[in-house]
Hints:
Elements: H1 2-10, H2 16-30, H3 35-41, H4 47-75, H5 79-95, H6 102-132, H7 136-139, H8 143-161, H9 163-168, H10 172-191, H11 205-214, H12 219-245, H13 251-279, H14 283-301, H15 305-332, H16 339-365, H17 379-395, H18 399-402
Helix pairs in contact: 2-6, 2-8, 2-10, 3-4, 4-6, 4-12, 4-16, 5-6, 5-10, 6-16, 8-13, 8-15, 12-15, 12-16, 12-17, 13-15, 14-15, 14-17
Amino acid sequence: MTPFLEKVDSKKSAYFLPVAIFLAMLPVTMIVPVFKEIVKDRFQSGNGEVAWFLSIAMLGSFVFSPVAGFLSDSFGTRKKIIILFCGLDALLLNLLPYADTLSTLLFLRFLEGGAHVFVIGLLLASVADFEHGDSKRKFGNGTLIGLSGMLLSLGGAVGLSFGFLGKLNPILPFQFGSVILLFLGWIVYQFVPEEKSIVSKRHSWKESLILFLTHPLLLFPLAFQFLDRFTSGYFMSSLNLRLREEFSLNPSETGKMLSLVFLPMALLSYPAIRLSKKTGKYFPVAIGSLIYGISLTLSGIFQSIVWIGISLFFCGLGAGLMFATSLRLASSLCPRENNGIVMASLTGFGSLGFFLGPVSSVGLDRFSTAWPPFIGSSPTALLFGIAQILIVLASIPFYKILNQK
């Protein structure tokens, strides 16, 4: 029995965590190109309902993210909780296209978003455990978190490219995504280890909240995650619908256009981590945010599908510089015994941004006819892009502290 267990344990490696994160992201974006068919066409609803379908999952993620981090820190395990919620997320995702009413659909979507944050949030917490735990000498050079950021972004890009499934049948992306989540649970069980330094430490909710007051610099990566996801809501709602309706792109073509953001974001995540070790943790975050904000603004001004594609590509470059590096920044600013609550909260704040982003985006676009013509088809892109730039300017007084290597 013992030799067998040792043989199984020898197969486990922390480098399976980036693979698990990649798989976890596939179902998230795989269903985006069929939002129109599942929500707008099926229930004869408008763009606002499509935005709510995206946003309500993010609200669920935000609500349940501190619960995920709190429970995993308290019980001293990430792995068991991840496996459990892979199964629950798969079930809820599979039920979505069969909802009888729009209210039922939105309720299931809320629960699905909550289940998914237990998966992706605790996978990221596991990465932080290995970066700063007993395995720091082996994994603390940024390689693991860089690969995780790269494959997280790549998972989003690859998931969008599965839009061809929706072209065949709009239910297929949900079914295929459920199968992927079940497979992910098996991968985590079979190949992902638990960092040995994790200990069961009972925290009260008060102690968890005080953490952010005693470590105020954590508010900066939280703010960047929020604003990054807030502006990303424009891509998934307003731009998604604009590409489908104004330019008559099919789900597959829409998915490919949106993947122009995720693909360069994925490819730059690991090099950005290596860059941050030379320039400081915050420099790539700041530069990437500026590139992202300017390109986002231009994507709403351009009237050509080619130029929109180019602006989306540069959005991806900026996002690639800032995404994984902001995760590294956050994980370095907290005690390792609080990795769960911090990384899950980081995911949750991003989800809150994603919740507010699509609804705000569609709402602002309703007033687009009152804006001057030079702003283009989406004043939302202009406002969201400026907001991204302003957060960088607001952080300048704290640059030296945040940019420590």
